[in-house]
Amino acid sequence: MKKTLVAVAALAAIGAAQAQSSVKIGGVLDGGVSSYSNTGATHKSLTSFVGGGLDAPSNFNLSGSEDLGGGMKANFMLESGISTANGGFSNSTGALFGRMAFVGLSGGFGSVNLGLQFDPAFVATLETDPNGATEYAAGVSQWLNTATSNAQGTSVAGIFDQNAVSYSTPSMGGFGATVLMTLGGVAGKSTANSHTSVGLKYSGVPGLLVTAGGYQSKNATGGTGNESSFGASYKFGQATLAANYLETKTSGSLAANKRTATNFGGGYEITSAASVTAGYYDVENKTTNGSLKTVSVIGHYALSKTTKLYLGGQNAKNSGFGGAALDAGGVGSNVSTSAANAITSTGVVFGMTKAF
What is the pTM of this model? Predict the structure, then answer.
């Protein structure tokens, strides 16, 4: 009898523990084809399959949360960037869980996370992107074009922040903030290979979103990179207008360089299933007086809540900017397509995304 009672108590304890914690599996798969004219140094057309994501970054993630009582939770996130082209890693640091890998605590005080995370300045910029932060002809590729010469410290492309500690405030009257710092791990040099980033957001007025962000990175040889941005979007009825501006500068052991990006556009929900967005992106290299001016249009059609088809078009004029990213289908490994210097490139993409 005692053994039976002990067994029942043990099973009850296991059930209680399982009830207090949960693990979720999720992600999205994107398979698409892009076709551009006048690409690369040869100025030739290029048609390719992009498995890392043209509309959304292909990824697989595991997340979990445990109720610790008193409104506090212990959380974790593991996310891997994958390619539907070959099943390999993409849109990440190149590691198994190269997009996110962190543990943390959350509660009434906000949240604290430890490990690989998205850069809060990057997130703040994309939240007011005219094309809704797609991987194609939008804010991600413009972010790459402004950050290519920057000191990234322990951050990859200024997007995936390694060795990071972050704090996010709770929402206070529509205002929220995230502060993050990465540790460079260089003996005797606490700031070497470090990266500090801030993202701010205000959404206290219905339909309005205002964001701002910035980071400072330092390499091991005294090079410094700085980024700052601000943006806003407003949704009224079925339409949305959005605009943002970002600027990067380098100094110290890095060659002095200043780049800016000005983006504006909007979107319209045609039906409950169909929508279209359009954006104008002007990236300037203030040091060389080069520019990359891009106009893009992207349409989406939802077959279900988790399945979408997309079709997009883009025209990019490169005037002395040098090699420039036209999409971000391979962030952290290779950008799938680039615009040659002093040339105009026109491209189209189509594909499908499936969330799970």
Answer: 0.87
